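@channel sequence for tomorrow's demo:
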Amino acid sequence: MVRDREHRLTGARIRARRAERRMTQAALAEAAGISASYLNLIEHDKRRIGGGVLGRVARALGTDPATLTEGLGPDLYAALESVAERIPSNPPPERDRIDGLATDYPGWAALIAALDTRVAALEHRITALGERMSHDPVLSEAVHDVLSTVTAIRSTAGILAEDGLDPQWQARFHRNLHEDSQRLADGAQRLAGYLNVGEAANSDAVSPQEEVEAWLSANDWSLDMSESCGLSEAGETALARHTARVTADADCLPDEALRAALKEVGLDPFRLADTLGAPVTRVIRRLAALPARAMPRPLGLVEIDGAGALLFRRQVTGFLIPRYGAACALWPVFEALLTPAHPIHRRFRQHGRDTRPLESWSAVDLTRPGGLAGPVVARAVMLVAPLEGVAGDGVPETVGASCALCPAPACPVRRESAVL
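structure tokens (generated this afternoon):
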């Protein structure tokens, strides 16, 4: 389909290139050794052009044949299609004329695609900042301290503005004003420093677990300790706990057995668990602990406790996992918590810009660390992977990331308004 479209547009590209060079149709036809009438048919895509003629036309136009036959490629076409589909306008864009836009105005088409990429990056940044403003405890405390100090300074200034204030009290209030202003300056400086640190990649981790996740992501989820981790003391402790757990899972389910089963049944944790005779939760954790380069598809992982708190995250494209606050209550892993005896396989898409078909496998572990007299402890895992061979519109958008980040207009489980 793409190839047919490109062939149809070869003539339009020849016409556009000729117009750019201010070359008449007769002059180009003469240089290519064909008649002007035949070139006219080619330029209006009413005749296909042979390889020899194409080569002569390309030389006359100062370009190469591939540029005339392939244009700017399917990536630009797909980018313009995406813009037309996602961004509403009145009147709506003429989607049936995208080919003409990319052919006749390649610079403008590339600029539209580049602006869309920039808008996507800015939206992602705004979303991350909105989530951080809503749920980051360190940021909330810093902002609260600044606002409290501003309120104190305003009250002191109001008292000092009154007439007839005793000199002793006036001196005391002046001293308070000086101390509060100094505290405000220090608090604002700390707040600015904290926000600036958050701009750097992987430096905005505010918990040891986030340090571990960032380190693992940078190392392709490999636990190779040949080089210094560069983590804080608390981060190294959290990494040691994670390593011990991964090692314990690997002892029970070695790499060789897992990789052999993967070749036999494919990426399906439930079938793998049956083949290997292992718990589904262990199989999911083992798959998520393997390097990305060793897997047939990219994988993401979510691990939660019985209260729904996120304990571990492995990001995958198309599935946004919030760093702060509660996740979307419609995630399949929360459904699995309600039916711990029945693992759940679901297909879904997540609301948002980078929506794509996904599938997930969720399962729950129930343990009694304190013995039969102790409480039941639940820990659930959800493996997420891109769904191959399925059109995007074939899977409904059924989940979000969190309420603050979800644009769904009507959701039965919404707890708060969206930031955007």
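heads up for whoever presents: The first strand starts at residue 300 and ends at 305.
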